[in-house]
Amino acid sequence: MAPPSPTRSESWRNVYLLMQLRWIAVIGQLLTIVAAAQFFAVRLPLGPLLLAPLFLIVLNFTVAGVLHRRQDFPQPELFSALLIDVGVLTWQLYHSGGATNPFTFLFLLQIVIGAMILEKRWAWAVAGVASLAVFTLTFAYIPLQLPAKHLGNPFGLYLVGSLFCFVITAGLLVFFVIRLDHNRRQSDTELAVLRQQATEEDHIIRMGLLASGAAHELGTPLSLLSVVLGDWARLPRIAEDPELLEDLAAMRTELARCKTIVSGILMSAGEMRGVNPAVTTVRDFFEELLGEWDTRMEGELRFIDRIGEDVAIVADPGLRQVIGNVIDNAQEVSPSLVVLEVEREGEEIIITVTDRGPGFAPGMIERLGTPYSSTKGRPGGGLGLFLVVNVVRKLGGRVEVANADGGGARVRLSLPLAALAYTKDDFA
Question: What Cα–Cα distance (Å) separates residue 111 from each residue in 10, 42, 420?
């Protein structure tokens, strides 16, 4: 089975760790049985003793199947898993000398693991069950049938077994305690990331409320200006003057752009697939976007098409605004040339925007997606990239920034096609 993903829950990783412990137990039990029988000539009840590793093998395959379907495991299930391990060890020791077997100290490993992965009451319960097992094995067990050469000095054989038990227990304790501590640290790190994301999303919500209020307040004057400009267009004096008509047309165009910008701000605040979604294809979407920017940029916006087979998507102003923010930032520092490259990698659309500007400062790359993190030196700087990172993350994608080898900055957006693909439910 593949190693656990960093995104798995702590309880999932603990179950995976217990499964590894059982595999080690299976190998250790089989080697111990062979060594005791072959090197020390101890007569062992092979039937009952081999039944335990066989049971653990079946159990591990079952757990592996469950791990593929489950993401989290509650405390009672973790307690039950440790209880099974305690029961198997009790069975083995019962048929091999009980408490006179030096491997009785392996119960301490189960108690330590329980203390690491379980809550207090469950950890005490594991310790209590293990202690009860040792108490029972002190008085009820099947004695080992030692060979004649060891009958006169059984304590010598016990010391050899104790040495092996100590070495095995020490190694397993160090290995698994380190792994369990790593799991816990990883969970703490993931929790810190989730808290940071929650803070950022709260920031976006507040920005969305501010944008909604601004859009509402701006709606009335913009509508009034639109009506006034329409009335002016019908005035004879203006209708007969080509220069005034040209200026009026430019004003109406910029007014329409203002309305689009206000809608785009709302989309950037996180309301994806909200207003005026449209069915298009990946290639058509970017060609239309390229046409819009060609009229706005003084320099060149170079488009590299590596999309391959085209696919239908739902594109709305929010997605357009996200990509526009990246292009706008690149154009601001590199007015002569911005390169927009789009390619498809499996089930992802990769959008890369490269400029010829000074690039990102090292501190900026580390603070990717942090609000108000900018080197432009103006109030409110850095919000564009902050919104880009959070909107892309909501779509299940990711944002990567780096400095290009030949100079300039490179911003790479990876978006899953599943989040953009057109389905009938989008317009149901």
Answer: 19, 29, 50
